[in-house]
Amino acid sequence: MANIKSAKKRVLVNSKRAERNKARNSALKTQMKKANAAIEANSADKDEVVRVTIKKIDQAAAKGLIHKNNAANKKSALVKKANA
User: Fold this and answer.
1) Do residues 72 and 54 make contact, with C-beta atoms less than 8 angstroms apart?
2) What is the DSSP letter of 45?
3) Where are the domains of the chain?
4) In this structure, are residues 77 and 84 in contact, taking their beta carbons and an 8 Å threshold?
């Protein structure tokens, strides 16, 4: 464990951020699974689910959780699958 005060703070802050990122990443993955399931089941509300998923992807990219190109690839694949 760190002895310097600033190093102790960094440990605390980093663990909080890691926990927050883990929760956000998990929520994003869950939403992606919901969207894929809605598309495969051809459910009536699939367009709404895809729209919400794209919003979540954009939010994750804005927060720095995923890279903007990764977000673009995810959105492109999702829309392509929905339109197929």
Assistant:
1) no
2) T
3) 28-37+45-84
4) no
Six token digits for residue 67: 């890279």
Who's near 75: CB < 8 A, 6+ residues apart? 54, 57, 58
d(CA 65, CA 45): 27
Longest CA–CA span in the chain (Å) reads 58
Q: How many residues does the chain have?
A: 84
Tokens for 27? 């929520």
In the structure, how many helices (H) and strands (E) does the chain have? Answer: 3, 0
Q: Per the structure block, which two tokens stand in for 82?
A: 């929905």
Q: How does pLDDT run across 18-39, given as a tens digit for each residue? A: 999 999 999 999 999 999 999 9
Please give the model's pTM, rounded to 2 decimal places. 0.83
